[in-house]
Amino acid sequence: MQRLTKSLRSLPFPAGKILPPAPRAALVVRREYSSELPEPVELSFDAYVGDNPETRPPLLTYHGLFGSKQNWRGISKALVRKVSRKVYAMDVRNHGESPHSSVHNSRAMSEDLRWFMEQRNHPSAACMGHSMGGRSMMYFARKYPELVERLIVVDISPISVPRSTGEMAEIFDAMLSLDLSPTLSMSEGRKIAREKLLKATEDQTVDFIMLNLRKDPDTGAFTWACNAQVLRDFLTRFDKYQTRLEELPPYTGPTTFICGTRSPYMRPEQWPKIQEMFPNSEIHWLEAGHLVHFEKPQEFLTIASEFLNRTD
Fold first, then answer.
1. 39 exposure class (CB count in 10 Å sphere: 0-12, 13-18, 19+)
2. pLDDT digit string (tens) for the chain, length 312 residues
3. Is 106 helix (H, G, I), strand (E, B) or coil?
4. Of 18, 35, 145, 165, which sees the most CB atoms within 10 A?
5. How far apart are the C-alpha atoms of 59 and 49, rounded to whole Å?
6. pTM given for the model
7. Residue 305's domain is classified under what CATH number?
8. Which strands form 59-62's sheet, in the order they lie side by side?
9. Are residue 248 and residue 152 in the same domain, yes or no?
10. Which domain holds residue 193?
11. How far apart are the first and last CA of the chain?
């Protein structure tokens, strides 16, 4: 039976095949993992295959903060028709259907990727991430360059982010203080939650966050799919990201950045410094905001598939 997921926006592409997820196994930690490394978690994922023979390493994708594997559904289905790769769209820890954890940072998310690849005997993979997911993929590429065949970073800089941790804390505080009666319908609960979140941030971010609101069919209780408390607790780690990244050597593999001209998450003046971190990199600018792959899907697919089909 096919697994059905829903993305932010329907994309006008022919459907590739989506494989049902493998049975969820219990968390098993390799003996090689020491107390110095975060414990990896079993990531929930959707796997996509096309009609082309899989002659290249698979593509692993990470979504952004508040997102889920569904965000990559349309792009993944279209990509497998253009590249000779299997595509894994994953829920990062503390998001979607992946386990909640008391730790949330790029280092931990990198260990999740490493564990994911080892379980499936993938010696290398192409990696693609948007926003928070892009930062995690950049860290992974510099931490484990031998595992990363090539890297796609979607609208995020390794140097800075436009929102302060204070602003983000207001968003999480609004989420955590939300108290909805289980007697409310889902539509009623969504309306109240949206009005409260609009006091903390703008429309587009609120609409994205609202995809996380859940209502238990048995108890009627409202919850957030993402682990809002832990994400808030680790906000200060976002500010330390560049320091952690600079402790690692540059990633010299093929790298492409795909960014939006109307997005504040990548600034052109940062590009020379970024090229020192990723010396074999290029950048593409699309007329879009932060959600580049939703706003310009055809242009995004052209750039991504051309890059993934290269043999350099």
1. middle
2. 333 333 333 333 333 444 444 433 333 334 344 456 789 999 999 999 999 899 999 999 999 999 999 999 999 999 999 999 999 999 999 999 999 999 999 999 999 999 999 999 999 999 999 999 999 999 999 999 999 999 999 999 999 888 766 788 899 999 999 999 999 999 999 999 999 999 998 878 898 899 999 999 999 999 999 999 999 999 877 667 777 788 899 999 999 999 999 999 999 999 999 999 999 999 999 999 999 999 999 999 999 999 999 998
3. helix
4. 18
5. 11
6. 0.86
7. 3.40.50.1820
8. 17-19, 45-49, 87-90, 59-62, 125-130, 148-154, 255-260, 281-286
9. yes
10. 165-233
11. 38
From the CB of residue 187, how many other CB atoms can be counted at a distance below 10 Å? 7
With beta carbons less than 8 A apart as the criterion, state whether 139 and 245 touch.
yes
Give the C-alpha distances (Å, rounded to integers) separating 76 from 86, 178, 214, 293.
Answer: 9, 34, 25, 11
Alpha-helix runs per DSSP H in 97-234: 106-119, 132-143, 165-176, 186-197, 203-210, 228-233
Distance from C-alpha of 73 to C-alpha of 117, rounded to nearest angstrom: 20
